[in-house]
Specification:
Elements: H1 3-24, H2 29-36, H3 40-47, H4 55-64, H5 71-83, E1 85-87, H6 88-92, H7 96-102, H8 104-109, E2 112-117, H9 128-142, H10 148-158, E3 168-174, H11 175-179, H12 185-197, E4 205-210, E5 223-227, E6 231-235, E7 239-243, H13 246-262, H14 266-281
Parallel strand pairs: 2-3, 3-4
Antiparallel strand pairs: 1-7, 2-5, 5-6, 6-7
Helix pairs in contact: 1-5, 2-3, 4-5, 7-10, 9-10, 12-14
InterPro entries: Cro/C1-type_HTH (IPR001387), DUF5753 (IPR043917), Lambda_DNA-bd_dom_sf (IPR010982)
GO molecular function: DNA binding
Organism: Streptosporangium album
């Protein structure tokens, strides 16, 4: 889906929610305009997703409709639209090193990470060799400046947050992520060995696997990272979508819980890893 289409859809959803508040309050557009001090043409533009409301507009709209409890969620939705889409191309102009470094402040701020990835091993858990192969794939596909050494160094530096005992990490990966050979057999085996170590005795980290034949009640097609309960990063081919609206975050939290209920951990996870590792070592 194109960037403009995603943003237009998000604007349409916000407009529909505001229109529904007015309708549920039994107000006409002109009556709402009178209560809020807005021009009635502005009301129409907002409800038809022609004009974005600002925070003052949303607060006044909710107050006029006796829906103050909706303010926080609607403001978050509007902010999400303003900055929901991070264009990788803009960040990638000087290479992936800058992209990787841009994550560091958020990682340092976040206390609880919940991560789902079905296509590749999460960056915080990657070995140096695997990280190099993964990032090399992105550089070659996107045809961007080649700063592979800086990008790998930045990604490995991010992993320092794993040593912070005040943080909690819950990783779930699909079995396919373990099998996709982004690097050669020896490097894949080394990466899987590292994951095996994480399945036992790491106090602030859990690592689960969705077996290939498992059937969760919800199988998200996209990779996503939940940072505390404040925002969700969704990875797509052309870029990232940032969700900050509490209702959106809640949907991803529910999806993560659905994955957690069918994921295997501990000894069962080690058995999956040993099987896949053995296949790579036999190659």
């Amino acid at each position: 889906m194109a960037t403009s289409t995603r943003i237009d859809e998000a604007k349409g959803i916000l407009a529909a929610r505001l229109r529904a508040l007015r309708s549920d309050a039994g107000l006409t557009g002109r009556a709402l305009a009178a209560r809020t001090g807005m021009d009635h043409t502005k009301i129409s533009k907002i409800e038809n997703a022609v004009q974005m409301p600002n925070q003052t507009d949303i607060r006044a709209w909710c107050k006029a409709c006796s829906a103050d409890e909706q303010v926080v969620d609607l403001i978050a939705a509007a902010q999400n639209i303003d900055a929901m889409y991070t264009e990788w191309r803009r960040l990638e102009e000087t290479g992936l090193g800058r992209v990787q470094r841009s994550f560091q402040p958020l990682y340092e701020k976040t206390r609880r990470f919940r991560v789902w990835q079905h296509s590749a091993i999460p960056g915080l858990l990657q070995t140096s060799g695997y990280a190099r192969g993964h990032l090399r794939t992105v550089i070659d596909f996107r045809n961007i400046p080649d700063d592979i050494d800086a990008a790998v160094a930045a990604r490995l530096r991010q992993q320092g947050v794993l040593r912070d005992g005040t943080k909690r990490f819950a990783f779930i990966v699909g079995e396919q992520a373990l099998r996709t050979p982004l690097v050669g057999p020896a490097e894949m085996a080394a990466q899987l060995d590292r994951l095996t170590e994480l399945t036992d005795g790491v106090a602030n980290l859990s690592f689960g696997i969705i077996p290939a034949r498992a059937k969760p009640s919800m199988m998200p097609p996209e990779n996503f990272w939940i940072y505390d309960a404040a925002r969700v990063r969704v990875d797509t081919v052309p870029g990232q979508i940032q969700h900050k609206a509490p209702s959106d975050v809640a949907v991803y939290e529910k999806a993560f819980e659905a994955l957690h209920t069918v994921a295997v951990y501990g000894q069962a996870a080690r058995e999956v890893l040993r099987t896949v590792t053995g296949e790579f070592r036999a190659t």
